[in-house]
Design a protein that fits this description.
Blueprint: H1 2-31, E1 42-45, E2 48-52, H2 89-105, E3 129-130, H3 132-136, H4 139-146, H5 150-160, E4 161-162, E5 173-175, H6 176-186
Antiparallel strand pairs: 1-2, 3-5, 4-5
Length: 187
């Protein structure tokens, strides 16, 4: 029995020292060479920090592009999905509520044309991006509220569209925070 317990205790102690101490210090050291020293990339507007580039934001005013819903209330400390299945009655109720709200704010859009990402939360609950299609479908509302032409808003979306890596890997995305900041700069 001694021959099994002692090696197990030694291995446990070595793992604790390595993963809680040495590995953590290596990652912390590597983070010092990243922008903002590993604290995240902040986004500023008019000399004020308005958010983080990789964290979703809640935009409820009709003059802004809406971002993807969050299952955690856009709280980065509690990142995560809802863990409810697609047949869960509570989940379906939440999605239907989001659809109804979207249709109230975008009366020119038909229910079947709403991109799913505008009514379903991402796995992390903090997705900062939407698809270009999800941005385009909101143009009519924003053009009306801001008294801008739809062509000008389309050009703004195209300017903010990030294409897939090498044109192959992943979808095209639009960062909603950056898009809304540039939208405010138009007025």
């Amino acid at each position: 029995m001694k021959q099994h317990i002692l090696p197990a205790l030694k291995l446990t102690l070595i793992c604790i020292i390595f993963f809680c101490g040495i590995y953590t210090l290596i990652i912390l050291g590597a983070a010092q060479f990243t922008p903002n020293k590993g604290l995240g990339e902040t986004v500023s507007f008019k000399n004020n920090v308005v958010g983080y580039a990789l964290e979703g934001q809640n935009f409820t005013a009709d003059k802004y592009f809406s971002s993807r819903p969050s299952a955690v209330g856009y709280n980065a400390a509690g990142s995560g999905g809802s863990n409810k299945g697609t047949s869960n009655p509570d989940y379906l109720k939440d999605v239907q509520s989001r659809i109804d709200s979207f249709l109230v704010h975008n009366p020119s859009v038909k229910k079947e044309n709403i991109p799913s990402e505008l009514v379903t939360a991402s796995g992390s609950g903090l997705d900062p991006d939407i698809s270009p299609e999800a941005a385009y479908i909101q143009i009519a509302r924003i053009a009306k509220v801001r008294n801008l032409t739809e062509d000008r808003l389309k050009a703004l979306i195209e300017m903010h569209t990030q294409q897939p890596l090498l044109g192959l890997f992943g979808p095209a995305t639009v960062n909603v925070l950056q898009l809304n900041i540039d939208l405010d700069k138009l007025n």
